[in-house]
Amino acid sequence: MQLLVRRLTPGPEVSIIPIVDRKVRVEEGWRLLIVAETRSRATARLSGVVIDHRQRDTVEGGYIQQWEIEIFVWAGCSVFSVSEESGEEHRLTLDVAPHEEKFGAARFREMLHELAETNKDLLWGLSPGAVAATRGSDSPPIVHPTIIEADLPAVLDAIRQLRADPLLLQERRREVLPLSRNRRPDHRTLKWMLSRGQSQIALKSISDNSDLPDPRLVVDQSTVFVTSNHPATRYIKSLLGRLQRSLRLTARAFESVARGSGEGHLADNETRARAAYLGSVVTRAVAEIQTTLRGSLFKDLEPLPLTETTLQAIGGHPLYGRIQTMVRRLLEPGLDLADRDVPSEGLMGALRPTFDLFELLVLSRLQRALTQTLGAQWQIDERPFTPGALLSHDGSSTRQWIAHSKSDRTRVELTYQPEFGAYAESKTELGRRSLSGKRRPDFTLSVWDKQTLVAWTIIDAKYRASRQSIHDALADIHIYRDSLRWHGRRCDSAFIVVPALAPDAIRYSHTDYLLEHNFGALVLDRKPAEPINGQCSLQPALRSCVAALRS
């Protein structure tokens, strides 16, 4: 069997991607064409899921089959396998790197951290196989493979940096040592010398031109020691000890699936291969952490729990703070899968796809921006946005963040994935209707005076960056703006929110363009806006509603 991997581009050119040690390096957003020359008909799977062939040609001696794969999300390593009817199997690992023009690895980790700070459950959702999953406090300590592949190498790299440049602590001690001529004795040392006749005699015999300590004269003196016995380093040791124990259990779980023992006997060959790979990654990490803890920096330190002093030291040191953040994420308790009898689905899935995580990040930022913009004169009800509602939503109900004015009956609603029914259907929910087919934008922001709709805005989160992708995304909200009606009213403005914009698409985010058309692209800030000024990149999406409140 022979495999060939090509990258498909919008233009006529097709580039061949080299295969090195049965692994190809690809990026999020690429379209791949995988061609296999086989002696019999073959079936292809990606992460254990069967994919349909695009083309199959009969040639002398066998077949040439093609499969097209579009990589929508950063998935870490995914296993692509081709199995012939004869039993021959060929595996290929797709090492999927993040799209640097969108988020990149660093911002992906920042996104996970921000969502986890909002609520840890928001990270967990539907696997690629559409298997529902929620966190469970009693679930085994196995974190999702994407988290392992995103953070574990970064943790190990940060630990190496810490070993090379740890925080140091100066300590003063009193010891009986030979007295040096270039060190001024303190009062306590002089008193000690005067109380001992031998010391006085030895002092008189020191040569005037010698700066070296006289071995005959030993005195009690103050000495400064530089030590690595810093509270923050001792806390990091306690964290690494916990991480080492947790990763050992993780490695055993992966190895169990790889061997096919226990519930692992239900796993297919691709899942076992994936588990074996992840088990080896975790085992190597455990060995490196063990070597670090036995090294000169940590071996004589007593582990220290998190204290106020430790927290202050870590907060003032970026490297220590980064290690704490990543290790705590790797210590998450794991998943309680809806179907525990299918370990392959548990192994492959449960972290939400990148575009889904980005949508939740936009939702979180919108809530924050609205809270800061409205101020203390509004009472906020955000119960429908609990993680349970977000994870289990089946489209049958509406989820809303609502702010009620304390001075009148005005309210502001942020609705998540509202449904606008098709015009041909007689029944429409809450006055929402599409002039064509049924549609569901990501968010609507509306202002109400009692039961009267005053203004509303459409917001769509799009994990895209290139010019053509931005054009496609803007076309979507063109359709929303023209076709959607709420109580007979067209929307006042419509925007997409994106992680970044290519240079040739930046015009769609310029302030004059947004003001003139009430339409365009908003680039999400890397960090949330500070509560002091409340200014953020999402403000244009709030403008129509804020204006309606002031009118």
Automatic annotation (TrEMBL):
The lineage of its organism: Bacteria, Pseudomonadati, Pseudomonadota, Alphaproteobacteria, Hyphomicrobiales. InterPro entries: PDDEXK_7. This is DUF2357 domain-containing protein.
